[in-house]
Write a structure and sequence with these properties.
Shape: globular
Helix content: 10-25%
Number of strands: 11
Oligomer: single chain
Order of helices and strands: HEHEEHEEEEEEEE
Radius of gyration: 16 Å
Strand order of the largest sheet: 1-9-6-11-4-3-2
Strand content: 25-35%
Distance between the termini: 30 Å
Structural class: alpha+beta
């Protein structure tokens, strides 16, 4: 069992979102980033799609994606999925969220591309409970752009801009926080996913 830092969960419980640096070994982050770059170079990434109808809308969302298998296709992906499954269990034990599975994909944004303001939980489906982003970028600075903008809807702090530093994990409540991805001057890489509740319509 991989120990999950309690600060990840306590921040999520307190704020509805959590930001944690140095989540995985740096060697794993480097390998995951290289795998994403290799897929981009090989042309195997696909344009991201929007909504339940899975329509491609490049004016709204500019990333290219590749969905991970349940167990991961490489040792680095397997390490990631193992730790995320441990995190899923820790969240269930502490927050009683009833999380069942994690769906996740590589997301690669070319320079200048973005993702407009949106909510991760669909109107007609409430399965996505916690959104997850693990950044895979090398030596990123705030001046490179590409921040995740979380809309907090607080008078004193309307939004929070999260710099996509490599090995930074961000979690937030999928149904609560509108958010967007700002354009960057560099290629921006992440593993983006959602912890989901069981689909009770199939029971």
């Amino acid at each position: 069992m991989t120990p999950i830092p309690h600060s990840i969960i306590s921040a999520l419980e307190t704020n509805g979102y959590s930001i944690y640096d140095d989540f995985l070994p740096n060697s794993v982050i480097r390998q995951l980033a290289q795998e994403a770059r290799d897929m981009a170079a090989a042309g195997t990434l696909k344009p991201a799609r929007v909504g339940l109808q899975a329509q491609s809308q490049r004016d709204i969302r500019g990333d290219l994606t590749h969905w991970l298998e349940d167990r991961g296709d490489s040792p680095a992906q397997q390490h990631y999925t193992h730790v995320m499954n441990e995190l899923c269990g820790a969240l269930n034990r502490s927050c009683f969220l009833g999380l069942h599975t994690l769906e996740t994909h590589f997301a690669v944004y070319a320079p200048g591309t973005a993702y407009g303001r949106h909510l991760d939980q669909f109107r007609d489906s409430q399965q996505r409970i916690i959104s997850s982003i693990l950044y895979l970028n090398d030596d990123w600075s705030a001046s490179d752009g590409g921040q995740l903008r979380l809309y907090l809807e607080q008078p004193e702090r309307p939004h929070l801009d999260v710099v996509p530093h490599g090995n930074r994990l961000v979690l937030f409540e999928s149904a609560r926080f509108w958010h967007e991805v700002l354009p960057a001057s560099r290629e921006r890489i992440s593993l983006t996913g959602w912890f989901r509740a069981r689909d009770t319509t199939l029971l």
